[in-house]
Design brief:
With 182 residues, the protein is an all-alpha fold. It has two domains: 1-66, no CATH class; 90-182, Serine Threonine Protein Phosphatase 5, Tetratricopeptide repeat (Alpha Horseshoe). The protein has helices spanning 2-21, 24-33, 37-41, 50-56, 60-63, 69-78, 93-100, 103-112, 126-132, 136-144, 149-152, 162-168. The protein is elongated, with a radius of gyration of 19 Å.
């Protein structure tokens, strides 16, 4: 029984170290091995969970890797400006949510800081990221979030709109009615 306890302590320590580094691969490995590991750690004697630590250190991708809406809400309550904090690859939380198709997270992030929809990732808009990663529901949510023509018609570095990117990627499922404002 003592050996199992030592293994759990080692896993906890490794997860905390991963949270300090912002290592999403390690987090994903732990979650794959034990889907409830973050819940279990929140019941330990530690005052801060790995999610608290990663959020404090600005490791946005680690903090929102699972896309849990409740976690996102709590983090935004603590500091809504986290919406604009980019990771080492230049991605803000809205980019990650769009790339992963996290519709509810997108809603929360846009509610917190609506102007975050204008932040581009290497010249691509969040609309174009939804198309590139084939997340139609996320695209619909973003289009429905506002009727700003500048946003809907914004272009990437090559000068293409989201409809042009959709056509180039042969993503014909993108509904034309979603872009009635264009």
């Amino acid at each position: 029984m003592e050996i199992a306890h030592e293994g759990a302590q080692n896993d906890t320590q490794m997860l905390y170290e991963a949270s300090m580094r912002g290592c999403v691969a390690t987090l994903n490995t732990f979650i794959q091995n034990d889907p409830f590991i973050l819940h279990k750690i929140s019941l330990t004697a530690f005052a801060e969970t790995p999610l608290h630590i990663s959020a404090l250190l600005g490791h946005v991708e680690f903090t929102s890797a699972e896309g849990h809406t409740e976690i996102v809400k709590e983090l935004l309550q603590a500091n809504k400006n986290m919406c604009l904090v980019a990771d080492q690859e230049g991605r803000i939380p809205l980019h990650l949510a769009a790339m992963r198709g996290r519709v509810k997270v997108i809603q929360e992030l846009i509610s917190a800081i609506p102007k975050s929809v204008f932040e581009k990732l290497h010249g691509e808009t969040v609309l174009q990221l939804c198309v590139r990663y084939n997340h139609l529901d996320a695209l619909k949510q973003l289009v429905a979030s506002g009727d700003d023509e500048e946003f809907l018609n914004s272009k990437n570095l090559e000068g293409n709109t989201v409809l042009q990117v959709s056509a180039m990627l042969k993503q014909f499922e993108v509904p034309a009615q979603s872009f009635a404002l264009l």
